[in-house]
Amino acid sequence: MEPYDYYYYILLPIFFFLIRSLFHKPSGRKLPPGPRGFPILGSLPHLGPNVHESLFHMAKRHGPLITLRLGAISTVVASSPEVAREIIGKNDYAFSERTVPDAIAAQPNPEFTLGWVSGDHAWRNRRRICTTHLFSSHRLDALQHLRYEKVQQLLNHVNKYRNTGKAVDIGKVAFGMSLNLVSSTLFSADIVDPEFESAQEFKEVVSHIMEDGGKPNLSDYFPLLRWFDLQGIRRHIKSSYKRLHEILEEIIEKRLNDRAAGTSIIRNDDFLDVLLDQCQEEGSGFDRQNIKALIVELFVAGSDTTAITIEWAMAELLRKPSVLQKARQEILTVVGTERPVQESDIDTLPYLQAIIKETLRLHPAGPLMLPYRAKTDTEVLGYTIPRGIQVLVNAWAIARDSNYWIEPMEFRPERFTGSTVDYKGLNFELGWSLWWWPRSFRHLVGDFQKGLRRRS
């Protein structure tokens, strides 16, 4: 291809978007208000490195429900509990479709994930498998010893460093613990060594996926430019997905060899065994390749987010020694020093619960919910959100709404003491509440909570 041809294919879509932005007239439908924007780019120049913060400041000027044009993509953004309740509570079916970013589509078999597809028959089957074999009350009881074991490994590691006077990288060891908990749950093996030395590689791989997936990407704002991958995000994230799939392929290969040779007298009966059994069932829709997409999704969702929350909680406690001392005193009073804290103690430690809630409020692992797409024209608070438009819910902004929180930027666990706010996803003023997960995961969270209630 001649250089002039290359420039032609780049400039042609840009010219197309210029003409469209100059002459496109809005429809007669009443869209939410928003900034006027620039030709071609729309409101992209207004977005800083932290998109959720930029959208938060836009909502301050234009209201809790705004319309933006981000390049060629029209987007509606919700930034208040009332609007969020309308979109993902009252009209969740109308907004159940997904806008899949180019970085997510770059992974192998993205159609076999839970968070990025609509609720068709194949998705419901995957959800059923996850619900039965990961989130049921029976599995929760069976895995309680595993959770205790991984936390104890973390504490032993911290104590070892404390005795030698070395600093502890909280993010690294928390990520290693979370990763081992997920890997042990899925295929009965630790993927990080007891000293957490090998955690760094996996932390970097998963972090790359999270970071690349969250970066503003021209390919998402100008779909006709996806082929060029101008920022290199698709190429970069592909290598991270490839590495995770290589690790999983080794584990799957070993398990299949053990099963074929009959070396495993007693089956592990873990989630990998369940998935491999499904692969052998005709018409199940599972095979050796697509089960890796589901496992990778569970890895990313279950490890990095947990580590981020633990790291933020520790940072806030170190910033506020009085809060740390109050939490320590509560544990000493309720549990004492003769035994470690058990899961059954959590209900009797309200201040510790308040610290966790406040951390999740102030530092949500996912400040923007995964992008929705309207299936039909839908009326929300007097405005019409047209079919096919992208919809974002800014959980970070909702958790900082001064209409609901006193000094919303401050870390104050006391705001939750004596409060009826919980983790069940019913409190829309909480940006961290579990409703920020996509519709598919909210079903799984509901199944998880039902299992917990049956246990208590």
From TrEMBL:
GO molecular function, one term: oxidoreductase activity, acting on paired donors, with incorporation or reduction of molecular oxygen
Coiled-coil segments: none
SUPFAM superfamilies: Cytochrome P450 (SSF48264)
Top-level lineage group: Eukaryota
Chain segments annotated as transmembrane: 6-23
Alphabetic keyword roster: Membrane, Transmembrane, Transmembrane helix
Family, similarity comment: Belongs to the cytochrome P450 family.
PANTHER family on file: CYTOCHROME P450, FAMILY 76, SUBFAMILY C, POLYPEPTIDE 5-RELATED
Full protein name: Putative cytochrome P450 75B
Lineage summary: Eukaryota, Viridiplantae, Streptophyta, Embryophyta, Tracheophyta
